């Protein structure tokens, strides 16, 4: 009988821990959202993971962001090359200005 009470006490401690950490509220909210879902998902576990934030962003979102990053890198390279050319022209211009003053 003492063994039964000891395990009951551990369960109660664990329940309080989960409640204090907000785990019970989060699980309750997700389960309520699943319950209220008009069309139940084929995979309830994926629904739980998605609503608990376990699953990362959608694959389409990731692909869109990757394409955007590639485009921005290309623009960056173009701008850096243009900057390099303009600096060279400016240096040439400044050099020719200095040569004109000394003569």
Automatic annotation (TrEMBL):
Molecular-function annotations in GO: transcription coactivator activity
InterPro entries, A to Z: AMY1
Cellular compartments per GO CC: nucleus
Keywords: Coiled coil, Nucleus
Subcellular location: Nucleus
Chain segments annotated as coiled-coil in the UniProt record: 62-96
Record CDD domains: ZIP_MycBP-like (cd21937)
UniProt keyword DNA damage, yes or no: no
Coiled coil as UniProt keyword: yes
UniProt similarity note: Belongs to the AMY1 family.
Protein name from the UniProt record: MYC binding protein
Organism: Erpetoichthys calabaricus
